[in-house]
Each structure stands twice: as C-alpha cells, then as structure tokens.
Amino acid sequence: MEGDQGHHFLMLLCIASPKGDGMGTFNRTRVTEFIFLGLTNNWMLEILFFNAFSVTYVLILLGNMLIVITIIFTPRLHTPMYFFLSNLSFIDICHSSVTVPKMLKDLLSERKTIPFDNCIAQLFFLHLFACAEIFLLTIMAYDRYAAICTPLHYPNVMNMRVCLELVFAFWIGATVHSLVQTFLTIRLPYCGPNIINSYFCDVPPVIKLACTDTYLTGVLIVSNSGTISLTCFLALVTSYMVILVSLRKKSAKGRRKALSTCSAHFMVVALFFGPCIFIYTRPDTSFSMDKVISVFYTVVTPLLNPLIYTLRNEEVKSAMKQLRTWKEKEPR
C-alpha cells in the first residue's frame, strides 16, 4: 500500500502482533517482496541444476503434450481412462509451470526475490493444480475399479457425461481448497522477516514469516491439506486392494493387462502422494530434506508420469507410432 491510510493500517497490524517488540514495531512496514534462499548457495551447483532442470522441464512439456495430442487424435483412445490420462498430462504441465520457470530464473540470479502478490498467486496455483491432481488420481482409481470389478455396468457407470461431470467437480473442489489455503495465508500480517527457505512460495514456509502467532492457522492448514491427501490416498489404496482381490477370478491374460494398468497408476500415486503427505501433515515443522521432497513432486513426478504411462502402455505407444506414420505420409 502506498497511501498514508494504507501505511497506517499496516503499521497497526504490526503493532497488534504478539510477536511485536514494543516501540521497535513502529519501524516495521508491510513486506512487499520475499527472498528465496533457493536450492543451494554454490554457483557451480546452481549452473548444474539449471542445465538439469531446463532439460527436465522441456521433457515435461514435450512428453505431456505428446500424450494429450495422441489421445485427442486417436479415436480408439476416446475412452474414460485415456480421457482422464489426458487431463492428468494437462495438470502436470500446469503444475510444473507454476514453479519451474521461476526456479530456473533464480538459479541464474544472485538475488532471488518475488513480489508479495506474485508469491500469493504462485501459492494459489500450486495448490490448485496439486489438489486437482490428487482428486484426478482418485477418480482414475475408481475408473479402474469400475472397469475391472463391474465390467458389465462400466459403460453406464463411466460414460462421457459422467467423466465431464467428474472433471468439473474436481476442478471446483480444487479451487475451493486453494482459496481456503490462500485466505488462511493472506489474512496474516507480514511486517518482519521476508526470507523463505525454499525456491517457491508455499503455505508452510510463508506463514512462518507472519508477525503473529500462526499455530491455529497451521493446524487449520494441515487439517485441510492433510485430510484431503490422506483421505484420497486411503481411498486409492482401498480401490487397488479390491481390484487385486477381484483379479483372482480373471483369466491370465486379463490379470496381466489389469495389473499392468493398475501398477502404472499406483506408481504415479506413490510418487505424488508420498511427498504431499510428508510435507502437508506436519504443522509448524520443517526438515532439511523438505527441498528435495519438493523438487520431487514439482519437477520429477510430472516428468515420470508420461514415461510411466507410455513405456508401460502398448495402446498409447501404438497410437503414437500410427500418429507419426500418418504425419509422415501427409502431403506437404
């Protein structure tokens, strides 16, 4: 805020803070930017990380866009499973794009800063796409359960209308979750330290910088994020356990196909939910390996998803080959 009224209002916020220090609080102003400590202070490692993550980000974009394009232009892949897979690839592109470009820029910068408003925007979209992926992976598990355990009813249970309704529902749910997280963060006064021990803005490291007691806010945030992560993870595990039990009645060929699909899904679930549960179920606690865990679910997992779903899926690989052949035969 630039006006006198806004300045006085923010000073009052700081004065009211339990963490204030008497008259010294009058010299504090509202934080206008945050400073990232980044992944490392070693410039040689920063150059190494920049090269590695640049290649990784390009592969994330190319790999996930290839899956989306292949599914769109291959009629036989217009099924619920591949419809959800194309949505997963789209979310992975968005999820990685929230943090990776800024991280790459900061790896080449001596001073790693982000304006307050941009930090809040990054936080909002990070939780939006992460929560959307959690809900989508849960829906994909239910889709596999319906296809394997109730194959006769599957066309009615999971038709395209239902798929669209589920996609609309999980985007609404993800938006509500992200708005709650953002509101709980911006309602706090920030008038003291502005150094974030990370390479992106997330709720846990940001609220630690608030000049007030954040214990209750931390509990509310963990209750929100932790409950969603744990509930969806338990639902996923339950779905896959039921599927495994039902496979005993299938033929050997049917078991192999179902296990191949479900194992790919479960690998993605473990790679994504593990870091999320580790980070968002610990109120007001941080570990030295948090940055490594964060890199894993913001950079590595979006890269592994297309590899897992293409290298282990003959239908997708076949469709990609046909698409490439069709493209080569197309008259120029």
TrEMBL record:
Bilayer-crossing regions: 47-74, 81-100, 120-142, 162-180, 228-247, 259-280, 292-311
Where the record annotates domain G-protein coupled receptors family 1 profile, the positions are 63-309
The membrane topology of this protein is:
Multi-pass membrane protein
The protein's matches in InterPro entries, at most eight in alphabetical order, are given as:
GPCR_Rhodpsn (IPR000276), GPCR_Rhodpsn_7TM (IPR017452), Olfact_rcpt (IPR000725), Olfactory_Receptors (IPR050427)
Cellular location of this protein?
Answer: Cell membrane; Membrane
Q: Which domain of life is it from?
A: Eukaryota
Principal location listed in the UniProt entry? membrane
Q: Which Gene Ontology molecular function entries are recorded, alphabetically?
A: copper ion binding; G protein-coupled receptor activity; odorant binding; olfactory receptor activity
Please verify whether the record's keywords include Acetylation.
no
For this UniProt entry, what's an example GO CC term?
Answer: plasma membrane
Keyword tags = Cell membrane, G-protein coupled receptor, Membrane, Olfaction, Receptor, Sensory transduction, Transducer, Transmembrane, Transmembrane helix
Family membership, please give it: Belongs to the G-protein coupled receptor 1 family.
Query: Under what name is this protein listed?
Result: Olfactory receptor
The upper taxonomy is: Eukaryota, Metazoa, Chordata, Craniata, Vertebrata
